[in-house]
Amino acid sequence: MQPNTPVLAEQPRFVRVTGVRNNRFVEFDFSIGDPTLFVELLLPFEQFKTFCQRQHAQELTVEQKAQVDFDRLKWRYGQPGLKH
């Protein structure tokens, strides 16, 4: 890695569509590098498509989605599957 190369520029980007609102907007999670660390975003369909192209974002694989869901359970309940 070159000293002046931004670290984030080298990290893969991921999207996970989580819903559609009013048949106009895409709800999705966006992450850089680690799919389990993400922000929730909302964009109109065309802007979502443009966003993904500009970010070179790829859809999470089935395995990555499962890992994200597993981590959510751990975060929420302390252990996957346990409810308080």
Compute the gyration radius: what is it?
A: 15 Å
H/I helix tally: 2
- Determine the N-to-C terminus distance: 46 Å
Residue share in β-strands = 25-35%
Dominant shape: flat
The helix content is 25-40%
How would you write the strand order of the largest sheet?
A: 3-2-1-4
Low-confidence stretches: none
Question: Number of DSSP strands?
Answer: 4
Arithmetic mean pLDDT: 87
Order of helices and strands: EEEHEH
Q: Give me the secondary-structure category.
A: alpha+beta
How can the largest sheet be summarized? 4 strands, mixed
Total number of domains = 1
Question: How would you summarize this macromolecular structure in one to three sentences?
Answer:
With 84 residues, the protein is an alpha+beta fold.
Report on this model:
This protein is an alpha+beta fold and 84 residues long. The chain has one domain (10-77). 32% of the residues lie in helices and 31% in strands. The protein contains two helices and four strands, in the order E-E-E-H-E-H. Strands 3-2-1-4 form a four-stranded mixed β-sheet, with helices on one face. The radius of gyration is 15 Å and the shape is flat. The protein starts with 12 loop residues before the first strand and ends in a 7-residue tail after the last helix.
